[in-house]
Design goal:
EC number: 2.7.4.9
Number of helices: 8
CATH architecture: 3-Layer(aba) Sandwich
Helix content: 55-70%
Protein name: Thymidylate kinase
Keywords: ATP-binding, Kinase, Nucleotide biosynthesis, Nucleotide-binding, Transferase
Distance between the termini: 10 Å
CATH superfamily: P-loop containing nucleotide triphosphate hydrolases
Structural class: alpha/beta
Order of helices and strands: EHEHHEHHEHHEH
Oligomer: single chain
GO molecular function, one term: ATP binding
Radius of gyration: 16 Å
Organism: Geomonas paludis
């Protein structure tokens, strides 16, 4: 089996950039790497992503949102993640089940037990070997995220960025609670600095974990 690494964090924390940089480093070392994301990662799940992240769909109820994430994940896991792991490849995923706990559980304050059951059902028991949590203050992340959205010429995926600061604070608190609960799986990296500084911290945090966990 391959090795499954997820990247998590609040909006604008820099996780997508750090995932890309890790992919480049691993491929330079000769590894076969699949980089993917949630929601999305395959055509059917990408259609659900478009619904979930479109600010025009603000009427989505918290429960409908949760179920859409679960449906997208079920497709993504079976179509992309499981086949790659079975090929012995390294899978890097931008958000996974921890995001649902943080955003829908802590952010939306939905039942954490129900979320756990849905996550287990959608993944078929597939879990990350390692999770990199890029942590930064909410205001720092939101400022970056909104600047990125303003600069994009594509779809404005901003439904979550437009949530209240308190919502994002709950999400961050949820992530940090997960990291405390699963220290054997999580590495927490300070993402408040620039890209280069964060990359140094991610590389240092992963060096021993990658060597020891594979």
């Amino acid at each position: 089996m391959g090795f499954f690494i997820t990247f998590e964090g609040v909006e604008g924390c820099g996780k997508t950039t750090q995932l890309r940089l890790l992919k480049e480093r691993l491929e330079a070392d000769g590894e076969k790497v699949v980089a993917t994301r949630e929601p999305g990662g395959c055509p059917i799940a990408d259609q659900m992503r478009a619904i979930l992240l479109d600010a025009g769909n603000s009427a989505i109820t918290p429960l409908a949102e949760l179920l859409l994430y679960a449906a997208a994940r079920a497709q993504h896991v079976q179509e992309v993640i499981v086949p790659a792991l079975e090929r012995g490849e390294t899978v890097l995923c931008d958000r996974f089940t921890d995001a649902t706990v943080a955003y829908q559980g802590h952010g939306r304050e939905l039942d954490l037990d129900v979320i756990g059951q849905l996550n287990a059902l959608a993944t078929g028991g597939v879990q990350p070997d390692l999770t990199v949590l890029i942590d930064c203050p909410v205001q720092v992340g939101l400022s970056r995220a909104l600047s990125r959205i303003e600069a994009t010429s594509g779809a404005r995926e901003e439904r979550f960025e437009l949530e209240s600061v308190r919502f994002h604070e709950r999400v961050r608190e949820g992530y940090l609670a997960l990291a405390r609960a699963y220290p054997e799986r999580f590495v927490v990296v300070d993402g408040s600095g620039d890209v280069a500084r964060t990359e140094v911290l991610v590389t240092a945090a992963l060096s021993g974990r990658l060597q020891g966990g594979r």
